[in-house]
Amino acid sequence: MNKWVILVLIGVFLVSFSEVKTLKGTWQYCGGKFNNKLSPAPEGYTQQRKYTDTQFEAFLLEKGEKPMKYESGTYTLTADSCIETQTYSMQESKLLNIPVHYQYAIRNDTLVLNGKLPGGAVIEDYWKRVQ
Predict the structure, then answer these.
(1) Which DSSP category does 96 fall into?
(2) Residue 14 clears pLDDT 80, i.e. is over it
């Protein structure tokens, strides 16, 4: 086999394992699981998260209405972990200013978050990239 072909194959292999440094973009909730029970995306409105390099804002979007921010905070990524800290919540929240650890993966255009909330609930959320 040509040495250039081998080098290209090695390069492709290494790039496939490159670490994601940011979730930057807009992601829309597609459903998931809450305590191992399916939890579909809501009907009648959508939920979106907008991530910058270190922060996120979450919005409820309803046709004919202005987007309503219901949550915001900060996040950090490591190899397969995402730590989110909610710094604002529209409603009373037991998660305010508490770092929550998630395992994350990006599969094609979908962000998958798996974790255990401080109250003990186990979640698996699916967010599809829209921008």
Answers:
(1) B
(2) no
